[in-house]
Amino acid sequence: MSEIVEVPLPGREYQVRIGTGLLARAGAEIAPLLHRKRVAIVSDAHVAALHLATFRDALTAEGIESVALTLPAGESTKGWPQFTRTVEWLLEQKVERRDVVVALGGGVIGDLVGFAAAVLRRGVRFVQVPTSLLAQVDSSVGGKTGINAPQGKNLIGAFHQPALVLADVGVLGTLTERDFLAGYGEVVKYGLLGDAAFFDWLEENGRAAAGGDLAARTHAVTRSVQMKAEIVLRDETEQGDRALLNLGHTFCHALEAATGYSDRLLHGEGVAIGCALAFELSSRLGLCPQEDPSRVRAHLAAMGMKRDLKDIPGDLPAAEVLLDLMGQDKKVIDGKLRFILARGIGESFVTSDVPREAVLGLLQEQRAAC
Ligand code: NAD
Prior knowledge:
Blueprint: E1 2-7, E2 14-19, H1 26-30, E3 38-44, H2 45-61, E4 65-71, H3 80-92, E5 100-105, H4 107-119, E6 125-130, H5 133-139, E7 144-149, E8 152-159, E9 164-168, H6 177-194, H7 196-211, H8 214-234, H9 249-258, H10 267-284, H11 291-302, H12 319-327, E10 339-342, E11 348-351, H13 356-368
Parallel strand pairs: 2-9, 3-4, 3-5, 5-6, 6-9
Antiparallel strand pairs: 1-2, 7-8, 10-11
The structure holds nicotinamide-adenine-dinucleotide.
C-alpha cells in the first residue's frame, strides 16, 4: 500500500511514494528510471547496518547491480571531507551522466548525496530513500541539497530535485524515540503553518503515530509531503512563500547555535520550541487568539516533547545573546529579522515587522524560567 504525492515541477517532475514495504520493492520502483541496471548507493553506518541489505536484495531481485558507500553517521559527516570522499568514490565507481545515485538515510545523507549528484559530471539524477521521519517529511522533498561550512550550517549547496522519493514508513520503526519525535516537530510545523484540520488530526492521532501505528504514520508523512510539495511548487527557490516552511526556525537556529549544534538539542526539537515561541510572540503582538500558544504547547507536552527554553539541558546564554544569534540567521535580509508569525493555527505569514523589544522580552522571560 502506498500513497503518491506528485511534485510537478516543469521538466523536473517526480513522485514521492509513501507507505510500507517500499524498501523491499525498491528494485521494481527504481527500475523504470535506469538506462543500465546498476546504481550507486550512499548511506550512513547506522542505516546501512539496519536497512542496506534489504535494499540491495530488492535491487538484486530485479537484476540491478549495486555498489555501496557507507559514511559515518551524524551531522559532522555533512562537510567537505566526506563530500569529497563521496564524489571521488562515485567517479571511481564510473557513475555516468545517465546513471542514478541513491541516498539511503536521514537528512544528512540526503543533503550530502543530493549535492554530490548535483555537481557530479555537472548533474546526475538521484533517488531519495529517506529513513528518518525528518527526512521523509521535509529534507527529501523540494531539492535543497548541500553541506555545512565552518562558517555555518547549509551554506554550500545547490537546488537539485530528486528523480524519485521512496518514503517507507516501516523503516521508521528502528529510529530512537527521540529521533522520531524530533522529526515530529516538523510534522507539527505543517499543521501550524497551513492546515488547522491537520493539527486537529495530530492532536487526536499523534500519540498513535509515535507509538508505531503505520496507518497514522503514513497519513502524517503524506499530509506533510503534500504541504511541502504545494509550497515548493509555488516558490521553488525561496523568493517568497517557501519561507513559510521556516516557521519556528529563526528561534531554532539561535538555539542550535547556542547549544553548539550538539546532542543537547536536535534540529526538530528546536523547531518545536521555535513554533511554540512563534505562537507566543504572535499572541503577544495581538495577531492570534490568546489560547493558541497554550494549545500548541499542550500538544507538544502530550507528545512528551520539549517546548520551552527550560527543557533544554545545560546553561543557555543571556536573552540578548540569543537575539544576536537570531540576527546571524542566513534568512536575515538587509539586517532585518524575518519571522514567520501566525494569525491562528494553520494561518502563518512572513513578516520583517517585529519589534525587537517584543522578542527580547519573550526570551528574557523564558530565560528567567530556566
Ligand atoms: P540524520 O541524517 O543525522 O539522522 C538522524 C540519526 O538517525 C542518525 O544517527 C541516523 O543514522 C539515524 N537514522 C536515520 N534513519 C534511521 C532509521 N531508519 N533507523 C535508525 N536510525 C536511523 O538527521 P536527520 O534528522 O534525518 O536530518 C537532519 C539534517 O537534515 C540536517 O543536516 C538538516 O540541515 C537537514 N535538513 C535539510 C532540509 C532540506 O530541505 N534539504 C530540511 C530540513 C533538514
